[in-house]
Structures are given as C-alpha cells and as structure tokens.
Amino acid sequence: MPFNQKRLNTILNKMPSSLYEVVGNSLGDANFNGYLKASKTITLEDAKSLKPLLEIAKQFSVAPISNFHVGAIAVGDSGNFYFGANMEFVGVPLSASIHAEQSAVMNAWLHGEDGIQGLHVSELPCGHCRQFLLELSNAHTLPIAVANKKYLLTDLIPHRFGAPREAGEGLLDSPKQRLKSIQVLDKDLSRRALNAAEQSYTPHTKNKQGFILEDVNGGIYEGRAAESAAFNPTVLAVTSALNQRNLSASREVEINSCVCAQVTFANHSQSSMAKAVLNSITSAPVEHIDLKFA
Ligand SMILES: [Zn+2]
User: Pick the catalytic residue: 55, 88, 101, 113?
Assistant: First the structure.
C-alpha cells in the first residue's frame, strides 16, 4: 500500500472540524516529519480522536509482503503524538521488517523524547514487539491501548525474558556514550552518523551503530540501532533511518547518500543486512565510518 494522499484526505475530511484544524494542517505541511505536537484538541481517550488518528498512522504502512497494515501512536512524555507503521522490504529476510509499535517508539526517540506515556495500536502487539518494549525503563507501567481495550505491557507479557531496565538505562533514557572516529570526519553527514551511533541503544552487545540518509533535496534522516535482550526484535540503524523517512512528507524523495558508523571491535555487524535493505530501495553508495570508544 503506497502512501495514498486521496485516502488520507478522506480520513481527514471525516474528522470533527476542531481536530481537522490541528491534524490536517500538520499533515499538509511540506516539512511534516511524523508527529503531532501536544494539543488539548487531541485526546486519544476519545474514539473521535483515536480512530481517525490510528487510521492515519496505518497510511504510513509499507507492507508489500503481508499486506497487513498496522498503525501505532506513541505518546511522548512531552505530550507529543508520534506515528508509527510497519515496513517490510521485498527481496530481503523478513527479519529486516519493522513493526508499527517499534516504528512509533523509535520515532519518539529520534525526536528527542526520553520516555513515552503510552502506546495506542490498531492491532494487539505481537510477541516480538512485547519483548522489544521491555527495553523501556517504564515497561512495568506502560499502558497499551488496542481500540478501546487497555492493557499494561506486563499484562501482555507477564513473564519477562531479560533483566528489567532501570530508570536512566533503558531504550529512550540511556545516556549518550562518547565515541571517536578512526578516520578524520570532514563532512557534516559523517559527524551526524557518529552522533547517531553515540546515542544508539546497545546494552546487550555494545555494538554502537548509527546511520544517516540524505535525499536529493537535502532532507536528512537519522537512524540508531536499538537492541533487544532477545536479539531478534532489535531495530537496525538503517531501518530506523528509513522509518523516519517513511513517516515524513518526503518519503518518496530519492536517496542521495548513506553513511553508516559502527564500532570496529563489533563481533556482529548490521552492514550486510543494511546493504540488502538499501538495495531494495536505492542504488546510492554507503560510506562506512569506523568508531572506537572515546
Ligand atoms: Zn509486532
């Protein structure tokens, strides 16, 4: 389902006018980048807001393999609303996919949120996402709403795998870790990739990794690796960057440059998967930057 402006307009036009004013203007902005600012007009407890907003989130879904479209909205600690949707990549392993819940949480993180208050999803989260969400330091109190049913994450996954993350050491609220580049970084994109790697969340393998995409109009999308204790639900840095691009108004603008920054000692690498995922989207070359801990 490629993004369909006509379908989006139909959803927007059915909204109550007060909601349309807030949501329609943001989504219609050429600089829209995947979230709505906190607004008293948007109350996700009310089906009049929630239903159309989850429908909008689903419009970002790219699911050419499953044709199963899922939308999510993460509410950041700031009160902002972050869209999320699943993405699948043709011709590469299914494990490269990102799920809507992951997409929304990553989107909140990439916009500077260091916590989320809750998550609204159009479908019950799969086991993979329940495991991934355990990386949040507020996992034990995180409310998850599916349509009008409310759960705590711990209702959905009562017996956890992996140690609980303490406040200040989870996904979203872990401190940045200083890294140095082995090469001289003479380009802004390279420095951005280093910065993305510094902020990546990799407590289980220490394989810090960041990814930057730039499109032909100069749009820049940052991606960070986000590990799961169970490994497989990990979000790759490249997928994280593609997720930010997909949630933006420039989702179809051609990619021009890619920069991948990764620590050198890593005993596993996302590079081959990143290459495969990118090959399904762009022929732009990928520059690699080797990092070490400062
Ligand atoms: Zn899932």
Answer: 101
- Give residue 144's pLDDT: 98
Report domain 179-293's class. alpha beta
Longest dimension (CA), the chain: 55
- Assess whether pLDDT exceeds 90 at residue 1: no
Task: Say how many C-beta atoms besides its own lie within 10 A of residue 293's C-beta.
Answer: 11
Cα–Cα distances (Å) from 134 to 50, 107, 156, 229, in that order, read 24, 17, 11, 9
Please tell me what DSSP assigns to residue 69.
-
Active site residue 214: no
Ranges in the chain annotated CATH 3.40.140.10: 5-20+29-156, 179-293
Q: What is the pTM of this model?
A: 0.97
Distance 181 CA to ligand 1 centre (A): 35
Answer yes or no: CATH 3.40.47.10 is held by domain 5-20+29-156.
Answer: no
| Tokens 């022929």 -> residue | 283
Cα(187) to ligand 1 centroid in Å equals 36
Q: Residues lining ligand 1 (ion), CB within 5 A?
A: 99, 126, 128-129
Query: Which of the four pLDDT bands, split at 50, 70 and 90, describes residue 267?
Result: confident
